[in-house]
Amino acid sequence: MAPGLHLDFHYDISCPYAYIASTLLPGLQRRHPTLTINYRPVLLGAIYRATSAPQGAGGSASDVFNPTKREVSGVGFGRTIRRLGVDYQSNPKHPIKTTKALRLLYCVEGQERVTLTGKLYQAYWVEQKDVSDTAELNGLVKDCKKLARGTKEKLLDLLGNGGFEGEKQRKQLEESTDLALQRGAFGVPGFWIQEEGRLYWGQDRLHFVEKALFAMEGAGQEQALEALVPRYVPHYQREIPQGEEVKLQFWYDFSSPWAFLGWTQLARLQRIFGSRLEIEMKPFLLGILFREIGAPNLPMGAISEFKRKYVGLDQGDWVKWWNDINRQNGRPDKNIDFKWADVFPIRTPTVLRAVLVEPRLVDILFRACWEQNKDVASEQVLHSVISEAGYDATKIISEANKPAIKEQLRALTKEAKDTGLCGVPSYRIFRRKIGQGDQAWSLSSEIIWGQDELAVVEDLISGWDGQSSIKDARKFAQSQRSSAKL
Predict the structure, then answer these.
(1) Does the N-terminal peptide bond of residue 67 adopt cis geometry, omega within 30 degrees of 0?
(2) Which stretches make up the DSBA-like thioredoxin domain (predicted)?
């Protein structure tokens, strides 16, 4: 085993996602006992300013979301909080200036910084306190039972005389912020693996971090990747509850690389859950939806250059992730050979209408867009792709251009807007008892947006109620095991 791996955690107390990440790091540390985790607070506002973030230095990322995206994202955040069992109360004063709190953190090191970080997160995101107030910080330090007495006295003295905002603390905070920027940060939380020389962004990318750590530790037997993602239902117990059937709606447009990645996993879901899972394909015009809800037609053009560069890395991480899971499962699916389209954005009205005429074209057309770099917006190219797959391209395209099919696509796009979708891929889960008719389908989930939420989709298909936490699931499983021994 390679000793001495190092992980830097870049965070600001003002970010709720960094708060979530801080609750997950103790588990990561337990699973990797030789790992050194360095807590490096940074000024999130300074990072926003340096990267020309659209929300500005003093804003939150959600400030620039359109109302629909803000709603879907807010629901998703609440689901994450519940699922992970994280204590949380939205702070009505958010965003609060955290400069003083961050400088205070640089008055301590090691485990004491970890302890004080937890106290500050608790104050901001559970107790709704104003951590910009020196008197409030003084009370928090007094109340922090896990700090050593000597450390507590030192911090109270520094808070009393203003020394906690000395030149040393200012410099360390600025240097850590600059370091995060040099590493490619555009927000928090960020995780820098020193030995890999790579930054990962987001609490929902910790499975990528852990995958890299296991690989570098060289423990011998490869870890089951599906076990690295937080789940209510363990990956080896996924199944539809007895007596039930599930319908999964998959909303997509061929123009999205993320929808392509989500689509590549549908066959895996079908294998896991079997014949009692019905997957309903829901194609629609994403560009029209964006126009209707006030989103930019090209979302990648509305983010900072720093974030745009990271998104490219993130797409590569996901391609490798799904390919590695496919390999671990015995390669039942084709490898994902992702290639960015030379002509982007891809115009897809005729492509979507073609798949309404012949649903079996989904596989062919997704791969033409995102593996074969085919300009399917060209009717000539589209004709060639369909024809080479063995279908009557002339007939399909002719049918696709008829008013009835055009109206069907318009209706699906309107349904996407009326349903509350903000992007693709999006998922919705319905349930019914075995043997009931189509009228019995009952919606049992919120909108799940993003292929990176597939573990949530799998939990919901497996019967998760959308409210209980993973911690509750573990307690229940332990009680079941204990009962079995009696």
Answers:
(1) no
(2) 7-213, 248-461
**Domain 6-217 top-level CATH class:** alpha beta
Backbone angles phi, psi at 435, to 5 degrees: 95, -10
CA distances in angstroms from 159 to 40, 115, 139, 146, 268, listed in the order given: 20, 17, 10, 18, 56
Q: For domain 235-461, give its CATH number from 3.40.50.1820, 3.10.180.10, 3.40.50.150, 3.40.30.10.
A: 3.40.30.10
Nearest partner of 43 among 70, 21, 12, judged by Cα: 12
User: Is the bond into 26 cis (omega within 30 degrees of 0)?
Assistant: no
* 215-253 pLDDT per residue, tens: 999 866 788 999 999 999 999 999 999 999 999 999 999
**Single-letter amino acid, residue 240:** I
- Strand partners of residue 199: 192
User: Chain centroid to CA 295: how far?
Assistant: 20
- Report d(CA 161, CA 159) in Å as an integer: 6
d(Cα 295, Cα 421) in Å, to the nearest integer?
12
Cβ atoms of 353 and 401 within 8 Å: the answer is yes
Mean pLDDT for the stretch of residues 133-142: 98
